[in-house]
Design a protein that fits this description.
Layout (H helix, E strand, L loop, with lengths): L2 E5 L5 H11 L3 E6 L12 E4 L5 H8 L6 E4 L5 H10 L6 E7 L32 H15 L3 E7 L1 E3 L7 H10 L3 E3 L6 E2 L1 E3 H14 L3 E4 L6 E2 H12 L4 E3 L21 H5 L7 H17 L5
Parallel strand pairs: 1-2, 1-4, 2-3, 4-5, 5-6, 6-11, 7-10, 8-13
Antiparallel strand pairs: 9-12
Helix pairs in contact: 1-6, 2-3, 3-4, 5-7, 5-9, 7-9
Amino acid sequence: MKTALVLGGTRFFGKNLVQTLLSKGVKVTLATRGKTPDDFGDRVERIFLDRVEKDSVIETTRGRKWDVIFDQICYSSHGAAIAVEAFRHSTSHYVLTSTLSVYGSLEKTCYEEDFDPYKYPISYTRRENISYQEGKRQAEAVFFQKAPFSVTAVRFPIVMGKDDYTDRLRFHVEKIMHEEEIGVPAIEAEMNFISQEEAGEFLVWCAEQKLKGPINACSNGTISLKNLFSYIEQAAGKTAKTTSRLTDENSSPYGVDHSWTMSNEKASFWGYSFTNLQDWLPSLIKAFVESEKKVPLS
């Protein structure tokens, strides 16, 4: 891989993806609307387009070629169909960022075969008209059934990191440090996570291997919300106040009603060595706690 186009590389683990590519000497083209600044300077080329407008994508990328295209921001069959048409002659391999959500709420560990995008019925719909889960299912279905290039769909669980613009981990840190209630339907439920650093690195590894089909990616190990809160309690010196009474203000962004986990056995079998969740999660939590301590009280 000598050249790569990245759609969605200006925030969260998209930045880690770009950084990993650059560290490997890959010539990176960053596709952006130009609304989110980045710190890559002249190390990347930038092209400006609107990902969900077909004419914008086609006209901006016409005649261009890249060894691999990474798509961090496809959330519907509409977006996938645009990519299939626009990049038909632009690449030989496509890496789509997908999600554990495509499996729905299975009450068992999720394996790749539990959702088959090769047979899933396609309904061409824009992102705003469907759920996140269905949008990602539709995106996978379009790519695997319609694309002339090979495709990897990387299914991530919740990604954690200091650049998480959704502030899901920070929500819990703030609630515990301010001694406010957190609404949790099942505090013993187990979950997988992956760090933003590893998510970016794994996407690049998939491209290097030219893996085809869907693949799960998560750090080794699971953790219950109860134990996650315990880490925060230890770092903050405060006790979590939890309740099963859920409101708009207190509901945990990680509030699943049963264990929601995935297997990374397939990627491990193919040679990827995942980190252990327990090796990086405590230090990340400590960083959030220390950051919160520096915020002046209102």
